[in-house]
Amino acid sequence: MKLFFLIFTINLLVACTTIPNYAPVRSYQRDLIPGKKYYSVVKGDTLYSIGFRSNLGYQNLAKWNSIPAPYVLQIGQKIKLFKPRSLVRKYKRVKASRKVIKKKRGSSQNKAVASQKKRYSSQKTSANSTNKKKMLKLFWQWPIKKRILKTFSQTGNKGIDISGKVGQKVITASSGKVVYSGSALKGYGNLLIIKHNYLYLSAYANNRKLLVKEGQWVKKGQVIAEVGLVGGKRASLHFEIRKNGKPVNPLNYLPR
């Protein structure tokens, strides 16, 4: 009998040591409540994470709340999740003023010259747009190369899910600064958010392990994390690209 209990205890201890400790990952229903006007800062929050969860972007939140870089927040601080009326009125005044100036300039110019300039400007804009699209295609790379499990529309317009192996190396899709590294955002597990420039952020969720810290600069192709399990069942990486705080389809940016 004693021998039986001894074997049972040893097996139990071995089983406990072999169960991997993955951050719990649920569905991506972790956004701030739609229509909510204010958010109260809690421990672990950053302006980047609040902008990410609200889909408003840290740029807008910084402007609306007069928070200068490096965007330091205090616990309990109230964050406006809407554009203040003063900024709306200012925007309307500036827009109206520009219309008046444009109208005056237009009336004083020769119509033929104006038409020629417009045609040239249109051609230039079209060329720039094409070049930008080409640059964006070259700018990004896949964080892991595997089969896509869920497309942009299937994940609720937040990103894509890519199959992988537990422990597989995750690389950054482009160079940038790590602005969030942690597991405080519900539904994302161990999450990394990287700021590439003023316009773009990328996010890497469901990781088993994070290999970089907040404030760290990373190069394109650098290993930043390890793939984990979703709900303890399936190994995959959730990948997002945000433009001005809004989720965009990564497949429009990643190379084929």
Q: How would you summarize this macromolecular structure in one to three sentences?
A:
The chain is of the alpha+beta class. It is built from five helices and twelve strands.
Describe this structure in words.
The structure is a single chain. It is built from 5 helices and 12 strands. By secondary structure, the chain is of the alpha+beta class. The strands form 2 sheets. Strands 3, 4, 5, 6, 7, 8, 9, 10, 11 and 12 form a 10-stranded antiparallel sheet that branches. A two-stranded antiparallel sheet has the order 1-2. Helix 2 packs across helix 3. The N terminus is likely disordered. A hairpin with a 7-residue loop joins strand 6 and strand 7. It folds into 2 domains: 78 residues, Membrane-bound Lytic Murein Transglycosylase D, Chain A; 113 residues, Glucose Permease (Domain IIA).
Which SSEs are present, and which pair or pack?
Layout: H1 2-18, E1 38-40, H2 47-54, H3 58-64, E2 78-80, H4 85-108, H5 111-139, E3 148-150, E4 160-163, E5 169-171, E6 176-182, E7 190-195, E8 200-210, E9 217-218, E10 223-230, E11 234-243, E12 246-248
Antiparallel strand pairs: 1-2, 3-4, 4-11, 5-10, 6-7, 6-9, 7-8, 8-10, 8-11, 10-11, 11-12
Helix pairs in contact: 2-3
The sequence of SSEs as H and E is HEHHEHHEEEEEEEEEE
> Low-confidence spans: pLDDT under 50, at least 5 residues?
2-29
State the name of the first-level CATH class of the largest domain.
Mainly Beta
Overall mean confidence score, pLDDT: 78
